[in-house]
């Protein structure tokens, strides 16, 4: 079983371990635009980004779009896919809509980008938790067989950010579970072009941080050792260092 | 959310701790250890990670340290989702956070370009809105 943390005396929270296990099971299955093997390969590649020499040099460049070289990589994925994974981890603030559109014109579709983004950021958040506690990254799951079903929600629309997203109102019945009590936020909608990507990261987010309903009720009990003020202090300081305006 | 949480619970918090500009706890229990651990994680500083983790463990205990690592992991993700999709701050959240963003000079961040600046008139209109929403949050949370 994954995420037992048997070697760690620290981690007593079963809900957190369970949220990670649920995500690992989702990661291994075929998605909408990548099969299970590709999804696990994307997760593996995300672990190369922070030690990539090319990323470190590009990060210092005035523009990341006039810079050539090769990433340190596992060699299991196409070059544009590897570049997207590394960019999301190491240089995300300079990602542009033009770059996403250019990738799409060369066969790396918007839908594939959104599903990949969901995998990269969710795996990264779990890896960061382990790193914070001086634990090795969890071994990745065994990919499950099957092909992606290429599902694109008909209600997805452009206009909010760089990619198409689901609206707050007017979801089809199969996606009606996405917004708690009919309320949403752009950070939830951001990767909703692939609804399961939202389901995956909110599962982990509820373990690591809070549920959407808890977020909207600052005086409610957090069921954590940290009180709400302490939680938001960590959230705010990490976001500030990451230069996150959102 | 720190500002809203502070208002909703009538807690006096120094919001400058978000920018690392406070010398102490900033009004938050174990604030200085939480800030130091958060900074070590977000800056990927391997020299400071172990000592700040140990300091938090000794001061706040095992479960608080694990919670802090989990929250930090979560917010290492959030910025990457927001920037990689170019989303603006939502209407209501923008309404609530605009004065704080100004106080903390958050528009210095490159990702602020995805959210249009608020007009002076809108800022004025937002004052009663903010009071109303924090009051509602207080009522919702107490149920």
Multimeric status of the protein: heterodimer
What amount of the residues of chain A lies in strands? Answer: under 5%
- What structural class is derived from the secondary structure elements of chain B? mainly alpha
What is the end-to-end distance of chain B?
19 Å
What is the global morphology of chain B? globular
The assigned structural class of chain A equals mainly alpha
Please report the total strand number of chain B as a whole number. Answer: 0
Poorly predicted ranges of chain A (pLDDT <50, ≥5 residues)?
none
Query: How would you sum up the major sheet of chain B?
Result: none
What share of the residues of chain B does DSSP label as strand, in percent? under 5%
Characterize the biggest β-sheet of chain A: none
**H-E order of chain A:** HHHHHHHHHH
* Element-level helix/strand string of chain B: HHHHHH
Can you count the helices of chain B?
Answer: 6
Kindly provide the radius of gyration of chain A, computed on alpha-carbon positions and rounded to a whole number of angstroms. Answer: 18 Å
Global shape of chain A: globular
